[in-house]
């Protein structure tokens, strides 16, 4: 039997009794070999005893606090109390509710779970109920600028690992009771908190129910990152395209909530999921809305060009140089051909080599510790750049193509979408090498078909381009003036 | 599931069975940049092609000049162009591609005998481009390919650049064939010769650098070359066909005290309109040429400040234009009897019924007899930076 099941069994089979010793022993069994558990036993005036149980580090309480707590409990319980009455409860709660959130629980299992997530349990002799004080206090990082989504203009705060901090970051941008937060817990062992947040009246009711249902269905041992949730709730897990928006930026989440989307905040990760995700939404940054709209529109157009070129540039190069020489302007053809003259590989192999080398370098740059990373980039620049061309292993036009593709793939605001296109570039190159432009066309058509077929929580992936909603295009291909965008559009 | 996998596999097999059927790496092709066709002594076609040597072109661009030539010239003879081409293809280890053939030069002998059979290959072969320029030359066409390039890497590019920049009536293969098919207009082609760089009209001496120059236009009837028109007349053809890009006009204007000065203008806009009239047997064309231009040089004593002086210049220019048009049209009518301007075309448009009924079949006989009246208007729209004539001022100081 797995330890988790054992623990669960013990917990579920036990019901709280009026005997403190009994209860205390049960807690000790359940928390056996848990080094971070803290027990404090005490006596109160009539020689009756009590106990505090708290997890170190998860519940934040020190000796002074504990003493004060003890006194507060004592002062509210005078004389020998065998039966807990409403009176006592009210007395204790009124003493303590000022300092923290309190609740009474008569279920052993809930008490254990609460202790695990940072509550202080107070056991009192003669009581069949456990007093739970929320003293949650986790060590967290301070709020920093998100590393993956930097902006020139815009707020610099980013989400961090603590869910309540993250929620507060959203809340302070939406001071309305319409902002709803519904808490879930998922993960048998991790017991991860998940908050589903939306704007009531703006998000569609059906969408909210659907998200809640899917999140509620999650059956997994542990959730360490929102990526788990993403994969468990997305519509098409066989697609290379990300179907949810993942962001570290509170302003981006709020912007999407205002458009009627639903955000899923997972504890212990700064990455918040926004559903439904659409293709064009993944190509937008919050900065599009902060910069002047002419500039923002121009940058969006640049981004569309980048999307196309990151997918097609190497394959177009292969197709044109091996099948369609007549399509290259003569002078360009001559300079390409003359630099290819000494290259021993076919164009496809040449391109594949360089693309793989480039992807490898990029991956190395992410993984390596910073001081070593610089070394890699120098070696990479030398190997990829100069030496390969000087040795005549690759041609310089191809190098230009590879670097342009590289730059284009850095332009994606969504790293996940960028990854998808990085991956798709390779089948595209194979298609180009076997069928030329015809192959590229076929694969692009297939890809388009796939993208048009995708849906995320009932919303077509390519919306609002397909199905066409002309009115919303003013915020897709370019960004219209705020005068024209005043009202938040309703997604789906 | 099983069915779909089977379907996928079948598709994959179908795709992979075909292979990469027309894949050619750039290192395996020989790019033809220009071709020349001549009529050989034995009546066969002689096809010469200029092929780029790729490793040489690299040297050219990097080191800025190499002793070896960047191009290779090959010739072969055959009963058809395709046959000659086949001979060429077997001579070298690479596949010859025609898709970047920029110019096609035809020797005079072949042009006079009839171009149609020779250029059929270029209109039919799928690699050949319709926008390759068609050039004719006096003498052997193959000789032109041997001229070293002065500015570009290879001669073909120079020829093409010259064609593009030229002020003559140029024709691509496609143009030529269109005009061949169309009733009421005859084709032309540019004439390119090897000329000494110092003086295109003078006799070449040994020291002279030789270059290629467009010297005129070949006039055809159907596909047969009749003769040449030199530069001034060829320019005039452009005006009449409304194709003018820019031109320089120079006129002499007699001054008061017998001193003749000259005025040069750059023409930057021209519009030619034709009006046709049929009265009985007689066909009459009224041509109105409207030009605008800028004064660029003035060696007369006329001050530009005076409106009257401007009028004198404009009238002189108009007269010059009228003379040149009349001269060109007369030459076409009397000497060549070939309607390269397309008077027949205009008549077709303006008098559709008459054309279809009577003239379409006998336009060749009718063309020399049509009456052409020219009216030109010239408008100066700029006079450059100077107002006063410098010549005039100097005179005054004396």
UniProtKB/TrEMBL annotation, chain A:
Taken from the UniProt entry, a GO cellular component term is: membrane
UniProt-listed Pfam families? GerA
Q: Where are the transmembrane segments?
A: 301-323, 373-394, 400-421, 428-452
Instruction: Name the coiled-coil region(s).
Output: none
Q: Its domain of life? A: Bacteria
What biological processes does GO assign it?
spore germination
Tell me which UniProt keywords the record has, alphabetically: Membrane, Transmembrane, Transmembrane helix
Similarity annotation? Belongs to the GerABKA family.
Q: What is this protein called?
A: Spore germination protein
Taxonomic source organism = Paenibacillus paeoniae
TrEMBL record, chain B:
Residue ranges occupied by any Spore germination GerAC-like C-terminal domain in the UniProt entry: 216-384
A Pfam family the protein falls into: Spore_GerAC
Key words, A-Z? Germination, Lipoprotein, Membrane, Palmitate, Signal
> Domain Spore germination protein N-terminal: where?
23-189
What Gene Ontology cellular-component terms does the record carry? membrane
The cross-references to InterPro entries, in alphabetical order and at most eight, read: GerAC_N, Spore_GerAC-like, Spore_GerAC-like_C, Spore_GerAC_C_sf
> Could you name the domain of life of the organism this protein comes from?
Bacteria
Query: Which cell locations does it reside in?
Result: Membrane
How does the entry describe its membrane topology?
Answer: Lipid-anchor
Q: Give the primary localization class.
A: membrane
Q: Name one GO biological process term.
A: spore germination
Q: Which family does it belong to?
A: Belongs to the GerABKC lipoprotein family.
Protein name as it appears in the record: Ger(X)C family spore germination protein
The lineage, from the top, is:
Bacteria, Bacillati, Bacillota, Bacilli, Bacillales
